[in-house]
Fold each of these.
Amino acid sequence: MKEKELINPLSARDTDRIIEMAWEDRTPFDAIEAQFGLAEPEVIVLMRRSLKPASWRRWRARVQGRSTKHALKASEQMHRFKSDRQRAISGNKISKR
């Protein structure tokens, strides 16, 4: 993706969620593409625009060495888009203090 504008621009909430998913080790780029329609190169461009230069370099170094971020390299046992603990977290069962 070369500096092209998206047909449907992402909301701030969607952008934050994509960045969060990109930082997660076990979330493959295929999951981001399935949910938001952004392929891996588009996610890389989004991350480069959104992160500070040092954070960008740290993220790229981390992602390039990860087999779990790429579905073809991931183990065959991993077929889920979310963590086992995600329901408890998103269910907001922890009382606010």
Note: The chain has five helices and no strands.
Amino acid sequence: MMRFIFIFFLFVSGWAVAQKPVPELWGTRVHDDAQVLKHETVEALEAQLKAYEDSTSNQIAILTVSSLDGETIEEYSLRVAEKWKLGQQDKDNGVLLLIAVDDHKMRIEVGHGLEGVLTDALCNRIIRNEMAPAFRRADFDGGVTAAITAITKGIGGEYAANDTSELGELSTTARILIGLGIYAFLGIFAFFGLFIKGGWGWFMYLFLTPFFSIFPAFVFPGHLWYVPGVSYLIGFPIIKWLVNQTSWGKKLAKKFEEGGGSGSGGWSSGSSWGSGSSSSWSSSGSSFSGGGGSFGGGGSSGSW
């Protein structure tokens, strides 16, 4: 029994040692451990965040690291927030902006007290609109500065960006691949509609028409958006007629019926996202120190 306990503690100790260490706060709000920010940018951000804290009591800190060393950005971000104790204890109004440069990951970690105004959706917009485009250009100074400005405006209810859809940010190839995946799924229902006899087959045709006619405008570039819609509008009736009129079509329809065409299939998909844990702490003294706020996994993560 003692041997088992000894092995268990060795395992736990090894896991703890393997975790990426959290840097000390050292009395500053901007920690550019990855060394991607200019000295002037660090000084300007430090002054901006100090003035913002003095006027609102909200504490915002920035940390850049080279790599997460295999840890998820959500886990590491929460550990940093727990150690740094950002935000006031009675307000939980802390925010951490974390960037992992080599992993191309970023996260805005939001304290409990600010989750109502700095929502997950708003954090996602800031990441998508302010940070990701700049980081793709290797403009970390511009991206971090824009993110901090957006965060402070977001807390004050003043952030309004020209929101870019996620599809709009994807490359043309990625958008086409996503579109093909969606149409492969819709194609299953269209396939069933070809072999369903009577009015139900045509009902399926009409039901799917908007998906094939309108959605492509958001996926395919330029004038290619009309190709799926036109192909479906013309192709479905022709193929359905061939199924009902030709010998091979009748044989295929018969095989479909014999194989359970009159039955029904079902698809279900489910996913859930859950993140975070809750923690609380008390403040410690330094020129800049956390005030004892708590975090519960609020915020958003992204990549570039």
Note: Residues 172-195 form the longest helix (24 residues).
Amino acid sequence: MAKFSSLFLTAVLAAVVAGSSSWQVADINLSIVAKDGTKKAEHKLVYPKVISSAEAFAADPTDHLKLSFKVQNNERPHQAMVRFLSKDDQADQIMVAASVKKASGKGRFELDFAKSHKKFKYGTRKYDMTLLVGGPQVEESLQYALGEIEVRGPTSNPPVRAARVQYEVQPEIHHQFRPDQKLINVAISGFFSLLVLSPVAVLIGLWSQLGIKFEPLKALAQNPVDLIMAAVFFGSLTGIEYVFYSYWTHVTLFPVLQYLGVLSAVAIASGRSVLSAVQTRRLKRTEKSDDVNKKEN
């Protein structure tokens, strides 16, 4: 008895596996609906029955092709398509069907020939229709040949370009530019220019009250090396300012970086020498003043 039950379970499992090794479809309904909603042709198929060539199944450019079916497998397909294979030149035209509902397993496909006429060639042609159903759960996909359909495309041929293009003079284009923006009053701009320059005037006035001492210049003149280093230092600062001006007006970034690298190195070296000389003279003056104070005391 136990041996019989095990054989029975094995047979049941084999039947289940065999049943799920391919897709099963039923309730296949194929119809052509006119623009006003009336059905021009309808076929209810049972797999693997096909539409016979004797049955008229033709669609006009304004018709709709509708297909409904039901997947009997417990699994649901990943994709379902209808392939139209032209009998003239064997050119594939694949239309993706709507997704199959998970609950009921029903699938629908609708094709509007008025919107997809570019995918079908001009004139009347016959196509072989094939329903394709597949998914990762079932190893073997379904390729169900539904039958033949005659698609009556537009009677007019597509416009053909001329073989030779003639180049001719076109009418002259007159551009209209915007008028120049109005500038502000000269008196107002002059007032604000003076207002911007006023701190410079204040600075010069304060310098005049403090008095300008030329002693550092005299000390530099006594030592030619210090004088040259001071000239190099101020010259490098002037060069850096000119590089910034050139960058603002016409020079690009990479040349500016090169110039700044050279001038900055010169400014650092010469500036350090000048500041050292100034510090040395300051220390000498401090020592002299200390010696004078000691002698007086």
Note: The chain has two domains: 22-152, 201-296.
